[in-house]
């Protein structure tokens, strides 16, 4: 592909109109939308309205008048089709970490079993929350098995199989249908972290037999920094699961102010406290954009951007080793390479206006967000990467300095 070919591909791109729906700074090629999605153009005005009109003028009346109270269910219903779930199977609440805690504890109590099965190298919060749940519940332990040994590791003690659908580092995607079926056959529940999948790849949780899922609002959903997260519980399971955080918002009648807890209906029981309305407003705008999109077109463009990126790096910077799967259906929507000086190279790229990220110890990671990234962006970014590698500018000592978030 030449630069002209890249431009022609962008001109023919059915998603090209979405780029102007985002605020992107001049002089930057943003390849980190898998970590923090870009700002939708409508979001600033929506948040300003929520602050000035709903909070400023409506005051406490807005819990009803602006349906603040209904935001967790309303935005959950908006996200549901992106997950392949029914509207009453998804709710927005808390962080992904907190939701993992709720669903892991609920799964252990519901099954009466003692093991959380996961894989080594899963996203740290998934592992750490599992370890915290195990420390809290007598007799419970965490077991980690490599991806190809997971099915065999499921046994009569397994309460829940906890996996990230798309791996945060490599981008490798698990076979959700096969592993959910294996968990079910062993009498265990499956809990999928879809943080790197939702809005990135087509999902069908119900068809694929997933029991439980959690995910972030601030990545491909473009909900803003620290956006609220979501949970999914297969409808038939909802009455059988109890949240360990029995806050008043998950109560059957929160405004009856009763002394004793009674779990709310359906997904409501997975709420804990008062929803963060400003974050909810920003998330709603991000999700609305995704709802306009054909996910098959997103997947096709993601695959094309990946192939272009991989081919250009193979030609211009062969010392970077591709660590993402080459088959499109075996991965998410980012591309990752390994290099012993990944940190310095990423810093050099950022200094040249190409924002990707570094994942310790040696991975360079680039998010491919088809809504606001084109073939020409990939062409230019890889051009700059090639120059940095050929010229050795990454060796500048200032690029070795580690920031708090790298
Ligand atoms: C797979 C996965 N799960 C969870 C998180 C973060 O969870 P939280 O929003 O609770 O910080 C991330 C963040 O990158 C992630 O990649």
From TrEMBL:
GO terms for cellular component: cytoplasm. GO terms for molecular function: kynureninase activity; pyridoxal phosphate binding. It catalyses: L-kynurenine + H2O = anthranilate + L-alanine + H(+); 3-hydroxy-L-kynurenine + H2O = 3-hydroxyanthranilate + L-alanine + H(+). Keywords: Hydrolase, Pyridine nucleotide biosynthesis, Pyridoxal phosphate. SUPFAM superfamilies: PLP-dependent transferases. Gene3D superfamilies: Aspartate Aminotransferase, domain 1, Type I PLP-dependent aspartate aminotransferase-like (Major domain). Pathway: Amino-acid degradation; L-kynurenine degradation; L-alanine and anthranilate from L-kynurenine: step 1/1; Cofactor biosynthesis; NAD(+) biosynthesis; quinolinate from L-kynurenine: step 2/3. Its cofactor is pyridoxal 5'-phosphate. Its EC number is 3.7.1.3. It is an enzyme of class 3 (hydrolase). It comes from the Bacteria. One of its GO terms (biological process) is L-kynurenine catabolic process. Pfam families: KYNU_C. InterPro entries: Kynureninase, PyrdxlP-dep_Trfase, PyrdxlP-dep_Trfase_major, PyrdxlP-dep_Trfase_small. Catalyzes the cleavage of L-kynurenine (L-Kyn) and L-3-hydroxykynurenine (L-3OHKyn) into anthranilic acid (AA) and 3-hydroxyanthranilic acid (3-OHAA), respectively. Homodimer. Belongs to the kynureninase family. NCBIfam families: kynureninase. This is Kynureninase. It comes from Sphingomonas jatrophae.
């Amino acid at each position: 592909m030449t630069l002209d070919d890249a431009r022609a591909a962008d001109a023919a791109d059915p998603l090209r109109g979405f780029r102007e729906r985002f605020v992107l700074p001049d002089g930057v090629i943003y390849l980190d939308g898998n970590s923090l999605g870009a700002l939708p153009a409508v979001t600033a005005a929506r948040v300003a309205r929520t602050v000035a009109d709903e909070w400023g003028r409506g005051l406490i009346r807005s819990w009803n008048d602006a349906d603040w109270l209904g935001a967790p269910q309303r935005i959950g219903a908006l996200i549901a089709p992106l997950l392949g779930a029914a509207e009453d199977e998804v709710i927005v609440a808390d962080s992904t970490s907190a939701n993992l805690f709720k669903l892991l504890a609920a799964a252990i109590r519901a099954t009466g079993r003692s093991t959380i099965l996961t894989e080594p190298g899963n996203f740290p919060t998934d592992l750490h929350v599992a370890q915290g749940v195990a420390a809290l519940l007598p007799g419970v332990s965490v077991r980690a098995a490599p991806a190809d040994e997971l099915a065999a590791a499921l046994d009569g003690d397994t309460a829940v199989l906890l996996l990230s659908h798309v791996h945060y580092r490599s981008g490798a995607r698990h076979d959700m249908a096969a592993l959910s079926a294996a968990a079910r056959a062993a009498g265990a529940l499956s809990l999928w972290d879809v943080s790197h999948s939702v809005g990135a790849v087509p999902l069908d949780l119900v068809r694929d037999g997933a029991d439980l899922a959690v995910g972030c609002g601030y990545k491909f959903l473009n909900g803003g920094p620290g956006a609220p997260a979501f949970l999914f519980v297969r409808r038939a399971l909802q009455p059988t699961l109890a949240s360990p955080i029995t806050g008043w918002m998950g109560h059957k009648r929160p405004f009856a102010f009763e002394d004793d807890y009674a779990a709310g209906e359906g997904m409501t029981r997975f709420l804990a406290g008062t929803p963060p309305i400003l974050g909810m407003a920003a998330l709603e705008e991000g999700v609305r954009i995704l709802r306009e999109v054909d996910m098959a077109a997103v997947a096709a463009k993601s695959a094309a951007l990946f192939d272009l990126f991989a081919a250009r790096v193979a030609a211009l910077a062969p010392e970077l080793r591709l660590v993402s799967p080459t088959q499109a259906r075996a991965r998410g929507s980012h591309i990752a390479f390994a290099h012993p000086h990944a940190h310095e190279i990423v810093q050099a790229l950022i200094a040249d206006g190409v924002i990707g990220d570094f994942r310790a110890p040696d991975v360079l990671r680039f998010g491919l967000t088809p809504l606001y990234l084109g073939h020409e962006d990939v062409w230019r970014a890889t051009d700059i990467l090639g120059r940095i590698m050929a010229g050795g500018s990454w060796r500048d000592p200032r690029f070795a300095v580690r920031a708090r978030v790298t």
